[in-house]
Amino acid sequence: MSLPLLKPYVPRSLYARAAIILILPVVVVLLVVAVAFLQRHLEDVTTQMTRTVSREIKLVMSEMKDAETQEEAIALAGSELDALQMKARFLNPGEVPPAATRRWYDFTAPMVVANLTRLVPEVQVVSIPDSRNTMVYLETDLGFLELTLDPRRLSPAAPHQLIVTMVFFAVLMTSISFLYMRNQLRPITRLADAAQAFGRGRVVPYSPGGAIEVRAAGNAFLDMRARIERQIEQRTLMLSGVSHDLRTPLTRLKLGLSMLPEEEAAPLLQDVNEMQELLDTFLEFSRGASEGTPEAVDPAELLQQIVEDARRAGREVALTQCEGNGKVMLRPTAIRRAVENLIGNAVRYGTRAEISMALTPRTLRIRVEDDGPGIPPEQRNEAVKPFARLDPARNQNRGSGVGLGLAIVADVARAHGGALRLGKSEQLGGLRADIVIAR
After folding, report:
1. What is the CA angle 160-24-192, rounded to 5?
2. Per-residue buried b or exposed e for 84-95, using 16+ beta carbons within 10 Å of the residue's own CB
3. What is the pTM of this model?
């Protein structure tokens, strides 16, 4: 479990987190091995080798101490220089480099310089410019002496090769592990895509694969999807059957009432019409968002058609704003039903409705606003529940509904992977209903 302070910096994708799980231990092991190798192996070996060379330098200087000239000093130490495989020459003060030079990747050079200057006080500068020569500059009574020797006598040859080899094989094995990990994570990604598509009202082909646990989760998802589809189908068939069976006696009642005097039949006919409307509402709720198949739809064109149909029906509706262009995978029939329900509520409890749309790369928002009394904040969660009846502040007497209008809209929004959000309209002062759908 990640710490709260590190949580904002932890990747959210499964691939990135798995990559960190693979790479982080490898990096830590490399660092630990590299530090242990540099400190314990290289440092100890280099110290021993530089101590030996420092004794050899002192031997050469002891042979030169009785010389009166530089040429005599070189001659006196000639045999020792040959035996020790060193070269010596005296320099003018201006020829001595002011500072040591070394290769940037030479890890042992600082230790060599530190040990030689500590063990041989006469050493002024130590330069290791390449892998063939090391120049040690000493201050003597006869002038500055330059000793040239093989760097391999001061430290292990190419100490960085071990680290380079470690890094190379670490990268190679990590890459192979990452490719294998991708094959293991691909079934999880396919399962997530299928679940997300089903949550948005689409059924995509999916077959379980991968490890045993992933296959078990995939089979569980398929069973769950099948049960939900059967439940929706059974609910629709049941309510459709009930609605169909009740239409026949309602039709007979209408025919019977038509035989009565108009004054006596009017109240009863109104009751029959309300029962017919209730049946239609129940059937509409039973269909929910399952009607039609998802397809690429231009939401601006769809809303324009809905507004034009509402105007022809005598409703005061306006499409005020459409931001963004593009198509979205929607069920046009379900979205039309949801928007028409919101428009119906708006003109039932108010006098006019305004519709706007905002399309971004991540979401689609369809907004319907009215100038009615609105819904208090504490009742908005209750208003989207089926068969919810609010108090008289919403002026329920102006319609014969059963509280399924907003429930149908919320069901359609959820079937598209979105939600219905209620608020107060800043423009008109009434209810603001937003259908927000993730793309």
Report:
1. 145
2. bebebebeeeee
3. 0.52
- Cα 198 to Cα 84: distance, rounded to the nearest angstrom: 82
Checking if the pLDDT of 333 tops 70, the result is yes
Q: Is 185 in contact with 14 (CB distance < 8 Å)?
A: yes
Other beta carbons less than 10 A from residue 105's beta carbon: 11
pLDDT > 60? residue 402: no
User: What CATH number belongs to 291-438?
Assistant: 3.30.565.10
The side-by-side arrangement of strands in the sheet containing 353-359 is: 317-323, 353-359, 363-370, 431-438, 418-424
DSSP character string of 231-248: HHHHHHHHHHHHHHHHHH
pLDDT per residue over 340-367, tens digit each? 989 988 888 888 899 999 999 888 999 9
Of 333, 342, 329, which is closest to residue 417 (Cα–Cα)?
A: 329
- For the record, the structure tokens of 422 come out as 């209620």
- Parts of the chain belonging to CATH 3.30.450.300: 12-158
Residues of each domain in the chain carrying CATH 3.30.565.10: 291-438
Q: What gap in Å lies between CA 166 and CA 156, rounded to an integer?
A: 17
CATH topology classification for 12-158: Beta-Lactamase (3.30.450)
What does the angle CA 160 – CA 120 – CA 46 come to, to the nearest 5 degrees? 20
pLDDT tens-digit map of 65-124: 888 898 999 998 988 888 888 999 998 877 888 777 887 777 778 888 888 999 999 998
Using DSSP's 3-state secondary structure scheme, residue 159 falls into coil
State the CB neighbour count (10 A cutoff) for residue 341: 22
Is the alpha carbon torsion for 204, 359, 417, 414 positive or negative? negative
Helix (H, G, I), strand (E, B) or coil at 318: strand
Q: How confident is the model at residue 387 (pLDDT cuts 50, 70, 90)?
A: low
Taking a C-beta distance cutoff of 8 angstroms, is the pair 144, 91 a contact? yes
| Block residue for tokens 């809209």 | 409
- Distances 346 to 19, 225, 238, 342, 399 between C-alpha atoms, Å: 52, 35, 31, 6, 12
Pairing of strands 431-438, 418-424: antiparallel
- Band the pLDDT of 155: cuts 50, 70, 90: confident
